[in-house]
Structure formats: C-alpha cells, structure tokens
Records
---
Amino acid sequence: MNIGTVAQRSGVPAKTIRYYEAIGLIPSARRTGNGYRDYTESDVETLGFVQRARALGFPVKDVAALLALWHDRGRASGDVRALAQQHIAGIDGKIAELRHMRQVLADLVERCAGNGDPHCAILDSLAGPGSPS
C-alpha cells in the first residue's frame, strides 16, 4: 500500500512517516519498481504503536526502546514498566514546573493593577532587577 493509505490508516502524516524512516525509528519501506514506497499491514500496526506512544508523550528515543521491547518476545515486562515509570517521573517534574510557573504568574497578575497606571509588576519582573520601569 502507498504512503497516503498508510498515513490515513495509521493516523501518522506522510511527512512524519518519512521522518521516522529517515531517523531510523521505523525501517524504510520497500520500494516498488517505480521507486514508490510500498507498505505492509505490519507497517500500519507499527506506525499505530508509534502514534499511540507519542500521544502519551514518550520521546522518540523512548519510542524506539518501546518498539524494540514490543518486537522482543523474550522481553521482561519489568523493562517496559521501568521505562514507563521514568516517563511518569518526567511528567511529574513538568507538572511541578508548570505549577510553579502558574503560581509566579498568578502572583504577578495579582500585583498588577490592570488600570490606566503605567506601572506593572509583570513587566517589571520580566525586565529584571535594576531595569527602568
């Protein structure tokens, strides 16, 4: 099947499929006599796997590791679990950073009068210490 069909069936845009091939995340498709990519049902399944892993926020490097584990029937589920737990820890770190950013910004918004006065705590904070108001 051609790249357009695979893109539609897997939910992965054709440009992204080409990118995944270029970086070695997925194997390059076979080529037909006229040079067109020719994909199999297995390729659709692999791209679906990649799409779902990316939707969960796994970075490409971790998706490659997950793909390797998926294809390894002798894998230990503990390896998969450890990778997912590392990802959860990263998500938790990002959530903490976002909460902190939100708190700082909410504090600055509270300190900004939001009226006709030119003084604004938000701009003062962004300008840094010692900057003219």
Note: The longest strand covers residues 30-31.
---
Amino acid sequence: MKTIILVRHAKSSWEDFRLPDHDRPLLDMGVRRTALIADYLAGKGIAVDLFLSSTAARAYDTAKIIAEKLNYPESKIVTNENLYHGSANDIFSELYGLPDDIKAVMVFGHNPSFTYFVNHYLSPTIENLPTSGTVGISFETDKWEEIDSSKFHVNFMVTPKMLKSK
C-alpha cells in the first residue's frame, strides 16, 4: 500500500510586490488555518515516511507547521524545485522516483497542479483545492511507479473551512 497526502500551501501574502513570488511569506490567517489542518491530521493519527515540499517559502513554511504537529523533524523535509511550477505530471514523476520502502508521503505545493492531480481521483471533481486544502489517497500497490494503474481509495479531503464549521 502507498499513501499520498497532498497539502496545498497556506494562504500567503501579496503585500510586498517587490518580493519574488517564490519568497512570499504566509499570512497569519494562513498559519492559523494550517494549524487546523495539522490538528485534524494529528487527530487521525497520520504518520508519513517523507515530507516533500516545493522550494517556495509558502509551501515549505506550511510543511514546517504540519511537521511540528506530527513530530516530523524539520531537518528531514525534502524540498524539490519541480513542485514549484510543476504540472500534475511532474508530481507523478516525483512520486514514481520515490524508493519503494517509503510507504507514505506528504507533498506540499501549489495550484493549479494540485487541483489537477487530485481530480484524477476525486468524484465529483473539484474546481479548486483551496489554500491549506488537504487530500489523502491510498493505492493498492507496493511500487510507486504503479500508482497510476492501481486501485485507489480517497481517504479524506479536508479544508480549513470544513474544520471551522465544526
């Protein structure tokens, strides 16, 4: 069994237009909303073997918030440039390259690629995976390179808005 948990980065700031897109920081609201997601994941007992993040500050900072809650060492978060402006196919490529001894991975990145990726598995599909939106999918295979041809199960899809209403 292989499990992927995709987390779209938290809400980020557009306040300083001189700042490159890659370096935009999280808004306080984004931090609070991601904390809701982190609490949800911790409550489900989620544990993963690898945190894989886009190199963008907003994705990496989102990963750090969740890593702290799940007791995943920040020093072990792997960053990958391909997740910054990559497509859904780039996400698949990164997953195919994972060692098969990794059973579960949490991936932090961006739209539109995250929405396109999760829509391969969601029915009905979604128009937009919102900031801090998180989707967990398990695949009936022992090889990462076979996930696209394996039976799968969407374990959960959660957004901060869903958690705030509880």
Note: The beta strands are 2-8, 50-54, 78-80, 104-109, 134-139, 152-158.
---
Amino acid sequence: MRYRLEIKQEARKQLKALPEEKRRNLGRRLDALQVDLSGDMKKLTAKTHEYRLRVGSLRVLFTLENDLTSVYAVKDRKKAYG
C-alpha cells in the first residue's frame, strides 16, 4: 500500500535548516516510509496516532491516519520530545 505524504509548514522550515546530506538521507527514509511504512518507526502513545521515525540523531515526528502520513516536526533527538 502506498501512503500519501504531507509535510507541514513548520517541518518544511526545519528541513530547510538542515545540511544537504542530512536532507537527502531524510528524503530517502521518507520515500521508504511512504511506500510500506518501513524504517525505525515507533508509536509514541497508545491513544493517539502519533509516531516517530529515527534517522540517525534526528527524529521525524508524524501522524498516521488511514493512508495519510503527516509530518509535523523534524528535530534533533534531544529536543524532539520536550
């Protein structure tokens, strides 16, 4: 199943602030996530549809509902959950 990918405005700003090499790596990981939800993915809470994708020291925070993956933040692991 292929999932639709939506990147919120705040996440776009965070992506643009990253070095090009990290952006490329994140792009590859988001493509894999979009195709079959592969990668180091973990559900954050039991009651919501929030997940995180681990890409090195970065965390991609997103929601997953039906066939829509909505990325709302891309942060360093030390700042992602606070």
Note: The radius of gyration is 12 Å.
---
Amino acid sequence: MDLKLKDSNVLITGSSSGIGKAAAIAFGAEGANVGVTYHANRDGAEETAEKVRETGGQALVLHYDLADADSIRSSLESAKKEWGMLNVLVNNAAPMEASGPTGQLFEDVPLKNWEEMLRKASKVSH
C-alpha cells in the first residue's frame, strides 16, 4: 500500500514495544524516516529501529522521558537536526505500564489524570 509517506519524517513516542513498535515498522514499510523513542527499553528501541530499516525506512533511536521536558525537547531537536523538520507525530507514550501507575486498567484511569498529563505535555511545546 502506498500512503505517500516515502521520505516523511515521523516521530513515534513509546515505540520500543507494543503499538508504538508496530506503528514504527508500518511507517518504515512506507519508506518513512522514523524517530524511534524509548524511556527505559533501549534494546527494544534498537530492535524496532532494525525492523524499520529492514522494511525500507530509515530509523533514529532517541531517548524520550515523558516526565522530563528537557528530554522531550532534546528528542525533538535531534530529529529536526537529522531531518530538518517533522511531518508526523504519533503520541503513543503514556506514563503508565499496561496496568496503569496505580494498578488501574487503562480505561479506569480518571479523566483528571489524563488532563494533567496533557497540560504538562502542552507546556513543553511552548
């Protein structure tokens, strides 16, 4: 399938495993340049990057700590330095494991927690 993403510059947060990894590989298969980010799982990010390359894309592995504004800025700056600009951002990272930070399921996390996370993230972009 040609989604016209060849040579697009894509940053996918939380792409060392799961949905983020699958998205990175899919963008790679379309010929995109993919920023593969990780918080703690560098080996997973390196594996994702290799799969992106195997499918025809380019990959850049970046450390990305959602709780650290400087880390986020650094990731964005590294991607922009490498490619000049970003065309696509897939915001897949969330500050929780599969069962949530307090043992809650994803769908049971209170709305106020999501709102707080989004407020913090919007401060980084300004």
Note: The first helix runs from residue 18 to 29.
